[in-house]
Amino acid sequence: MAAVKDYYKILGVGEDATTPAIKKAYRDLARKFHPDRNPGDTSAEEHFKEVQEANDILSDPQKRKEYDQRRKSPFSTEGGFDTGAGSRFYERPDGTFVRFETSDDIGGGDPLGGFSDLFGRVFNGGRTVSRGRDINTVIALSFEEALKGGRHEVVLPSGEHVRINVPKGVHDGFRIRLRGRGQSGPTGRGDLYVTFHVESSGRFERRGSDIHVAETIDAFEAMLGTTRELQNAYGSKIKLTIPPGTQPGEKLRVREQGVETKEGKGDMYVEVRVTVPKGLTAAQKRRLMELMSDDS
User: Fold this and answer.
1) What is the pTM of this model?
2) Is 48 within 8 Å of 8 (Cβ atoms)?
3) In this structure, what DSSP letter does residue 184 have?
4) Same domain, yes or no, for 150 and 220?
5) What is the per-residue pLDDT across 235-289, written as a single tens digit (0 to 9) for each?
6) Looking at the domain assignment, is residue 112 inside a domain?
7) Does 188 lie in the same domain as 162?
8) Does an H or E element contain 138, and which?
9) Domain span at residue 48?
10) How open is the CA angle 44-48-50, to the nearest 5 degrees?
Protein backbone atom coordinates (compact mmCIF):
# COMPACT_ATOMS: atom_id res chain seq x y z
CA MET A 1 0.00 0.00 0.00
CA ALA A 2 1.36 3.40 -0.99
CA ALA A 3 2.15 5.96 1.68
CA VAL A 4 -0.61 8.43 2.49
CA LYS A 5 0.01 11.85 0.97
CA ASP A 6 1.18 14.51 3.41
CA TYR A 7 -1.46 17.17 2.83
CA TYR A 8 -0.06 19.32 5.63
CA LYS A 9 3.29 19.46 3.84
CA ILE A 10 1.58 20.25 0.54
CA LEU A 11 -0.14 23.29 2.10
CA GLY A 12 2.92 24.20 4.16
CA VAL A 13 1.10 24.14 7.51
CA GLY A 14 1.59 22.22 10.74
CA GLU A 15 -0.56 19.32 11.87
CA ASP A 16 -2.10 21.57 14.54
CA ALA A 17 -3.04 24.28 12.01
CA THR A 18 -6.44 25.89 12.51
CA THR A 19 -9.07 25.82 9.79
CA PRO A 20 -8.59 29.56 9.00
CA ALA A 21 -4.82 28.98 8.67
CA ILE A 22 -5.44 26.07 6.30
CA LYS A 23 -7.83 28.12 4.19
CA LYS A 24 -5.37 31.02 4.00
CA ALA A 25 -2.52 28.72 2.95
CA TYR A 26 -4.79 27.19 0.34
CA ARG A 27 -5.82 30.55 -1.10
CA ASP A 28 -2.21 31.73 -1.35
CA LEU A 29 -1.02 28.55 -3.06
CA ALA A 30 -4.06 28.27 -5.33
CA ARG A 31 -3.40 31.79 -6.50
CA LYS A 32 0.29 31.04 -7.06
CA PHE A 33 -0.22 27.84 -9.06
CA HIS A 34 -3.52 28.68 -10.80
CA PRO A 35 -3.42 27.64 -14.50
CA ASP A 36 -4.55 31.11 -15.55
CA ARG A 37 -1.36 32.53 -14.01
CA ASN A 38 0.84 29.73 -15.34
CA PRO A 39 -0.34 28.93 -18.88
CA GLY A 40 1.34 25.83 -20.29
CA ASP A 41 3.17 25.03 -17.04
CA THR A 42 2.32 21.38 -16.33
CA SER A 43 4.26 21.41 -13.07
CA ALA A 44 2.22 24.32 -11.75
CA GLU A 45 -0.95 22.56 -12.85
CA GLU A 46 -0.02 19.44 -10.87
CA HIS A 47 0.79 21.56 -7.81
CA PHE A 48 -2.57 23.30 -8.22
CA LYS A 49 -4.41 19.96 -8.23
CA GLU A 50 -2.51 18.76 -5.16
CA VAL A 51 -3.29 21.97 -3.30
CA GLN A 52 -7.00 21.60 -4.14
CA GLU A 53 -6.98 17.98 -3.00
CA ALA A 54 -5.24 18.87 0.27
CA ASN A 55 -7.67 21.68 0.99
CA ASP A 56 -10.67 19.48 0.24
CA ILE A 57 -9.55 17.05 2.95
CA LEU A 58 -8.08 19.36 5.61
CA SER A 59 -10.77 22.04 5.49
CA ASP A 60 -13.49 19.47 6.22
CA PRO A 61 -13.41 18.46 9.93
CA GLN A 62 -14.71 14.91 9.34
CA LYS A 63 -12.46 14.22 6.35
CA ARG A 64 -9.50 15.64 8.26
CA LYS A 65 -10.20 13.39 11.25
CA GLU A 66 -10.35 10.28 9.06
CA TYR A 67 -7.24 11.38 7.18
CA ASP A 68 -5.27 11.90 10.42
CA GLN A 69 -6.31 8.43 11.55
CA ARG A 70 -5.14 6.84 8.30
CA ARG A 71 -1.80 8.62 8.52
CA LYS A 72 -1.15 7.24 12.00
CA SER A 73 -2.12 3.67 11.25
CA PRO A 74 -3.20 2.91 7.67
CA PHE A 75 -3.97 -0.75 8.42
CA SER A 76 -5.71 -0.30 11.75
CA THR A 77 -9.42 -0.03 12.43
CA GLU A 78 -8.92 3.73 12.78
CA GLY A 79 -7.13 3.88 9.46
CA GLY A 80 -9.79 2.15 7.40
CA PHE A 81 -13.54 2.37 7.10
CA ASP A 82 -15.30 -0.43 8.96
CA THR A 83 -18.94 -1.24 8.14
CA GLY A 84 -19.34 -3.38 11.24
CA ALA A 85 -20.46 -6.34 9.08
CA GLY A 86 -17.16 -7.97 8.27
CA SER A 87 -16.24 -5.44 5.62
CA ARG A 88 -13.23 -3.11 5.63
CA PHE A 89 -12.13 -0.40 3.24
CA TYR A 90 -8.51 0.56 2.54
CA GLU A 91 -6.88 3.14 0.35
CA ARG A 92 -5.45 2.24 -3.03
CA PRO A 93 -2.36 3.98 -4.44
CA ASP A 94 -4.61 6.10 -6.68
CA GLY A 95 -6.52 7.49 -3.70
CA THR A 96 -9.66 5.35 -4.10
CA PHE A 97 -10.86 2.78 -1.56
CA VAL A 98 -11.46 -0.95 -1.90
CA ARG A 99 -13.70 -3.20 0.20
CA PHE A 100 -12.83 -6.75 1.20
CA GLU A 101 -14.73 -9.27 3.26
CA THR A 102 -13.07 -10.99 6.24
CA SER A 103 -15.31 -14.07 6.10
CA ASP A 104 -13.82 -17.38 4.92
CA ASP A 105 -16.22 -17.77 2.00
CA ILE A 106 -14.62 -14.81 0.19
CA GLY A 107 -11.17 -13.96 1.41
CA GLY A 108 -10.09 -17.24 2.92
CA GLY A 109 -9.25 -15.29 6.06
CA ASP A 110 -6.55 -13.34 4.22
CA PRO A 111 -7.47 -9.65 4.22
CA LEU A 112 -4.76 -8.72 1.72
CA GLY A 113 -6.47 -10.91 -0.86
CA GLY A 114 -9.35 -8.47 -0.77
CA PHE A 115 -7.36 -5.92 -2.78
CA SER A 116 -8.23 -7.86 -5.91
CA ASP A 117 -10.89 -6.23 -8.08
CA LEU A 118 -12.46 -9.70 -8.33
CA PHE A 119 -13.56 -9.56 -4.68
CA GLY A 120 -13.70 -5.81 -4.04
CA ARG A 121 -15.80 -2.81 -4.92
CA VAL A 122 -14.06 0.50 -5.50
CA PHE A 123 -14.82 3.26 -3.03
CA ASN A 124 -14.09 6.99 -3.23
CA GLY A 125 -13.79 8.80 0.10
CA GLY A 126 -15.65 6.00 1.85
CA ARG A 127 -18.69 6.20 -0.46
CA THR A 128 -19.71 3.87 -3.27
CA VAL A 129 -18.59 5.16 -6.64
CA SER A 130 -21.75 5.56 -8.68
CA ARG A 131 -20.36 8.54 -10.53
CA GLY A 132 -17.09 10.26 -11.35
CA ARG A 133 -14.87 12.17 -8.94
CA ASP A 134 -15.62 15.73 -7.89
CA ILE A 135 -13.46 18.56 -9.23
CA ASN A 136 -12.33 21.59 -7.22
CA THR A 137 -11.16 24.77 -8.87
CA VAL A 138 -10.48 28.40 -7.95
CA ILE A 139 -11.56 31.53 -9.80
CA ALA A 140 -9.53 34.69 -9.08
CA LEU A 141 -11.58 37.89 -9.21
CA SER A 142 -10.67 41.53 -8.87
CA PHE A 143 -12.41 43.50 -6.14
CA GLU A 144 -14.64 45.16 -8.74
CA GLU A 145 -15.50 41.88 -10.53
CA ALA A 146 -16.60 40.34 -7.24
CA LEU A 147 -18.90 43.28 -6.53
CA LYS A 148 -20.60 43.28 -9.92
CA GLY A 149 -20.69 39.52 -10.60
CA GLY A 150 -21.18 38.20 -14.12
CA ARG A 151 -19.95 35.36 -16.31
CA HIS A 152 -16.59 33.63 -15.95
CA GLU A 153 -15.15 30.64 -17.79
CA VAL A 154 -13.07 27.81 -16.32
CA VAL A 155 -11.30 24.98 -18.10
CA LEU A 156 -11.63 21.51 -16.58
CA PRO A 157 -8.77 18.95 -16.62
CA SER A 158 -10.60 17.23 -19.48
CA GLY A 159 -10.30 20.40 -21.55
CA GLU A 160 -14.00 21.16 -21.26
CA HIS A 161 -14.94 24.84 -20.93
CA VAL A 162 -17.55 25.64 -18.31
CA ARG A 163 -19.27 29.01 -17.92
CA ILE A 164 -19.74 30.07 -14.31
CA ASN A 165 -22.33 32.60 -13.17
CA VAL A 166 -20.55 34.69 -10.52
CA PRO A 167 -23.11 35.97 -7.96
CA LYS A 168 -23.22 39.70 -7.21
CA GLY A 169 -21.18 40.66 -4.18
CA VAL A 170 -19.38 37.33 -3.85
CA HIS A 171 -16.83 37.37 -1.01
CA ASP A 172 -13.38 35.84 -0.75
CA GLY A 173 -13.58 32.11 -0.04
CA PHE A 174 -17.19 31.77 -1.24
CA ARG A 175 -17.84 28.33 -2.75
CA ILE A 176 -20.50 27.09 -5.15
CA ARG A 177 -21.38 23.61 -6.37
CA LEU A 178 -22.31 22.70 -9.94
CA ARG A 179 -23.91 19.30 -10.02
CA GLY A 180 -22.83 16.91 -12.72
CA ARG A 181 -19.95 19.03 -14.03
CA GLY A 182 -17.13 16.96 -12.52
CA GLN A 183 -15.33 13.93 -13.95
CA SER A 184 -17.24 11.23 -15.79
CA GLY A 185 -17.77 7.88 -14.03
CA PRO A 186 -19.44 4.50 -14.61
CA THR A 187 -22.96 5.79 -14.01
CA GLY A 188 -22.63 9.56 -14.09
CA ARG A 189 -20.50 12.60 -13.46
CA GLY A 190 -19.20 14.08 -10.24
CA ASP A 191 -19.75 17.66 -9.16
CA LEU A 192 -17.70 20.78 -9.77
CA TYR A 193 -16.84 22.94 -6.75
CA VAL A 194 -15.75 26.50 -7.47
CA THR A 195 -14.08 28.65 -4.81
CA PHE A 196 -13.73 32.40 -5.43
CA HIS A 197 -10.55 34.24 -4.48
CA VAL A 198 -11.15 37.99 -4.36
CA GLU A 199 -8.26 40.42 -4.69
CA SER A 200 -8.05 43.28 -2.20
CA SER A 201 -8.73 46.88 -3.20
CA GLY A 202 -6.22 49.66 -2.85
CA ARG A 203 -8.82 52.08 -1.48
CA PHE A 204 -11.83 50.15 -0.20
CA GLU A 205 -12.06 47.57 2.56
CA ARG A 206 -14.95 45.16 2.72
CA ARG A 207 -16.39 43.98 6.03
CA GLY A 208 -19.36 41.74 5.43
CA SER A 209 -21.70 43.75 3.21
CA ASP A 210 -20.29 47.11 4.34
CA ILE A 211 -17.55 49.10 2.64
CA HIS A 212 -15.01 51.14 4.61
CA VAL A 213 -12.96 53.97 3.13
CA ALA A 214 -10.89 56.89 4.44
CA GLU A 215 -11.13 60.54 3.42
CA THR A 216 -8.60 63.22 4.42
CA ILE A 217 -9.52 66.82 5.23
CA ASP A 218 -7.56 69.64 6.86
CA ALA A 219 -8.05 70.98 10.35
CA PHE A 220 -9.97 74.06 9.19
CA GLU A 221 -12.44 71.90 7.25
CA ALA A 222 -12.87 69.70 10.30
CA MET A 223 -13.65 72.74 12.45
CA LEU A 224 -15.93 74.54 10.00
CA GLY A 225 -17.42 71.57 8.13
CA THR A 226 -17.22 70.87 4.42
CA THR A 227 -18.56 68.66 1.61
CA ARG A 228 -16.78 66.08 -0.49
CA GLU A 229 -17.68 64.34 -3.74
CA LEU A 230 -16.61 60.70 -3.41
CA GLN A 231 -16.85 57.58 -5.51
CA ASN A 232 -18.35 54.45 -4.02
CA ALA A 233 -16.92 50.99 -4.70
CA TYR A 234 -19.02 50.72 -7.88
CA GLY A 235 -17.66 53.96 -9.33
CA SER A 236 -20.79 56.05 -8.73
CA LYS A 237 -20.37 59.59 -7.35
CA ILE A 238 -21.89 60.48 -4.00
CA LYS A 239 -21.92 63.72 -2.02
CA LEU A 240 -20.69 63.52 1.56
CA THR A 241 -21.43 66.24 4.10
CA ILE A 242 -18.81 66.53 6.84
CA PRO A 243 -20.36 68.46 9.74
CA PRO A 244 -18.50 71.16 11.74
CA GLY A 245 -16.46 69.86 14.64
CA THR A 246 -15.80 66.45 13.10
CA GLN A 247 -13.09 64.69 15.09
CA PRO A 248 -10.09 62.77 13.64
CA GLY A 249 -11.00 59.11 13.18
CA GLU A 250 -14.74 59.74 13.29
CA LYS A 251 -16.76 57.53 10.90
CA LEU A 252 -19.64 58.86 8.84
CA ARG A 253 -22.25 56.41 7.60
CA VAL A 254 -23.66 56.58 4.09
CA ARG A 255 -26.62 54.23 3.83
CA GLU A 256 -26.96 51.64 1.04
CA GLN A 257 -23.64 52.52 -0.60
CA GLY A 258 -21.97 49.23 0.35
CA VAL A 259 -21.99 45.79 -1.26
CA GLU A 260 -25.09 44.79 -3.20
CA THR A 261 -26.17 41.14 -2.92
CA LYS A 262 -29.46 39.33 -3.44
CA GLU A 263 -30.16 39.95 0.26
CA GLY A 264 -29.86 43.73 -0.11
CA LYS A 265 -27.31 46.55 0.12
CA GLY A 266 -24.77 47.28 2.82
CA ASP A 267 -23.58 50.71 3.93
CA MET A 268 -20.42 52.70 3.34
CA TYR A 269 -18.45 54.07 6.30
CA VAL A 270 -16.12 57.00 5.69
CA GLU A 271 -13.36 57.46 8.25
CA VAL A 272 -12.35 61.12 8.47
CA ARG A 273 -8.63 61.77 8.74
CA VAL A 274 -7.51 65.26 9.68
CA THR A 275 -4.24 66.87 8.65
CA VAL A 276 -2.68 69.88 10.33
CA PRO A 277 -1.37 72.53 7.93
CA LYS A 278 2.34 73.33 7.97
CA GLY A 279 4.24 76.47 7.07
CA LEU A 280 1.71 79.06 8.22
CA THR A 281 2.58 82.64 7.39
CA ALA A 282 3.02 85.23 10.11
CA ALA A 283 -0.35 86.78 9.23
CA GLN A 284 -2.11 83.42 9.47
CA LYS A 285 -0.52 82.76 12.84
CA ARG A 286 -1.69 86.16 14.13
CA ARG A 287 -5.25 85.41 12.96
CA LEU A 288 -5.22 82.08 14.77
CA MET A 289 -3.89 83.67 17.93
CA GLU A 290 -6.67 86.26 17.75
CA LEU A 291 -9.29 83.52 17.37
CA MET A 292 -7.85 81.66 20.36
CA SER A 293 -7.92 84.89 22.42
CA ASP A 294 -11.55 85.50 21.46
CA ASP A 295 -12.50 81.99 22.60
CA SER A 296 -10.94 82.60 26.00
Assistant:
1) 0.54
2) no
3) B
4) no
5) 999 999 999 999 999 999 999 999 999 889 999 999 999 998 888 888 888 888 8
6) yes
7) yes
8) strand 135-141
9) 7-128
10) 115
